[in-house]
Amino acid sequence: MPASEHMPILGKRKSITQRILFPLVALIVLSNLVVLSIIMGQLDQQLLDATEQDLINESELQAVQFRANMAELIRDLRFVTGTPPIQGLIRAERNGGADPSDGSSEAEWVARLGLIFSEMLKAKPQNVQIRFIRANGLELIRVDRYGPSGTIQRISQNELQDKSASKYLSETLRLDTGHVYLSDIELNREFGEIVQPLQPVIRAATPVYTADRELFGIVIINHNLQTTFDALKSIAGVDHQFVIANGRGEYLAHPDAERRFAFEYGRSSKITEDFPIAQRLLDEPQLEVLNGKGNTNGKALVYSLRSITYNPEDSTDRLILATSHDFQDALAIKDRMLSKIYLFLIFVLLMSGILAIYVSRRIAGPIISMRNTLNRDGLATQSEDLPIHDGGELGELARAFDNLLQELSRKQTLLAAEITERKGAELELRVNNQKLKAAYKELEQFTYIASHDLQEPLRTVQSLVEMFEENYGSEMDEQAKTFLGFIKESTMRMTALIRGLLDYGRLGGESELTEVDCQELVNAVCVDLSLRLDEVGGSVEYKDLPVITGKKTELRLLFQNLISNGLKFRRPDVSPEIIIAAERGLDCWQFSVSDNGIGIAPEHFQHIFMIFQRLHGRDEFEGSGIGLAHCKKVVELHGGEIWVESQLNVGTVFYFSLRDNRDEHA
Ligand code: ADP
């Protein structure tokens, strides 16, 4: 049977694999959860911050783009204004229709200018119309871009209009040379009617002066802002809402068609309705950017508002751009990220599980195989079957086991030798014991036969003495009678001695062990001795004596002898008082029987227990000297000891111990 089967199992212990696996996986899960919770805690704020920064960057780019656009428009205007045909035209007109420098007619210069205007429109698709208008308001030349195909056409003479009432003319004519007028951004109109499809336009115009600084007319470009607005929108992220308002806060671009250019239709639709905070930008011209997050007009938004001045002549010309992003949309990315994080976590968990299993197998594997070897081979395990040459703890463990095994098998050999030796000794003891028993039996038989056979001649002597007394009694003198008395007395004593010897031999012989109530036993002895007690006026005191396992008849003899001796060896004139007590020892009961008699001198303490040993003459105290020998034998039969303590003329205490065999026999 393997050694492990003898071992008590002290509760459920985990295997090494489990001990490594659980903490490792728990550690990984915990660290992942900590990382996740940190990420989650920061994610919202960071996402919103990042969105806000995106919006700021976008609107900045939009501002740059729009200003660049306007700058380009102004450049284009200056370019066409500076072209030679305009000065040629002035020269021709001032000189009665022919340019003195090269003789070109007014019409020729107009034609050349028309060509340049057309080329300009071709080159810049956002410009939809370029005109030269005289200072008196009559259009001198006008090139238009028409319809969806974008055909460029110079308007015939008879279609030219009088623009003397228009605001842009009067505004531009007021300017000094080189300065530019930029109109409000409006929907393109033709003859007062809004042109379909709708086109947001801005007019850029600049005055033209003659060499002697006389106002001659203006050059004006109508610029379609739709492409620019689209470009600005395309800068804004796909998920971002983007609107444009003018310097009065009126919408120019808005996802809802109803709301853009509402002022053109007599309605009002302003950026402050959606972003009340935009009012600040409208009120404070020097304020450029306003961004933030929070509830704006009932919606949770991240937003960036920007005021763009684009007219170098007039800083009150402004566009208000607003890009914004819904909280919900901004945070939607979190959900996408989360699902990725969860996937990643599951992956990490799986990997860590596999890693933990691998690591624990690497560690536990060799230990398990060592355990299997030890279970299989036990003490016969060979050193080479254990990994004793391994480095590290496993090698140390294997070497420790190997040493232990060698030590155990050495001890086992020693133990086997010792057991053989002991068995031999035991056998010898048993043989000796049997021999001893046989010798004891023989001795008992010898004692019996001897005492039995001794009685025979003694009885003959006794009957001969009786016959002698009957036949010759009358003839005997006094001396002969005394001698015969001595013979009779001696034979009687001899009979008593032999009977005592027989009793001694028989003591303990075949009797059984039984439960003996000592209290009852002493009671019975006292009843037997009651006549003698009355006679000498003695008393026996005893109480709570125990129940023990022993040989009843022998124990009765023991108490009887000790009580009778206490009564017998009393001091003259002192009533004998005998006290019997018992006290529990470790594995025995210790009894004491004390009296107030004549006492015993210490030098006799030992030999009074020997058979036929007496301290007094028969004329002093009768007796055969066998009582205490009986007592010693009875006590020893019960595995105990007997001894005496005494003081002359004070009293004697006999102590004896009786083994308490009750548990053994229960
Ligand atoms: P016996 O009583 O027949 O003489 P025992 O063997 O009983 O023989 O006693 C041996 C001797 O021990 C006695 O002769 C006596 O001198 C002494 N002895 C015994 N019991 C007492 C006692 N209680 N007090 C004094 N002496 C005692």
From TrEMBL:
Q: Which InterPro entries match?
A: HAMP_dom, HATPase_C_sf, HATPase_dom, His_kinase_dom, HisK_dim/P_dom, HisK_dim/P_sf, Sensor-like_sf, Sensor_kinase/Photoreceptor
Location (main, coarse): membrane
Ranges for domain Histidine kinase come to: 449-662
Enzyme class, one word? transferase
The protein's UniProt keywords, in alphabetical order, are: Cell membrane, Kinase, Membrane, Phosphoprotein, Transferase, Transmembrane, Transmembrane helix
Q: State a GO cellular component annotated for this protein.
A: plasma membrane
Start and end of every HAMP domain?
361-413
Q: Which Pfam families match?
A: HATPase_c (PF02518), HisKA (PF00512), HK_sensor_dom_bact (PF21623)
The name under which this protein is listed is histidine kinase
Organism from which the protein derives: Zhongshania antarctica
List the taxonomic lineage: Bacteria, Pseudomonadati, Pseudomonadota, Gammaproteobacteria, Cellvibrionales
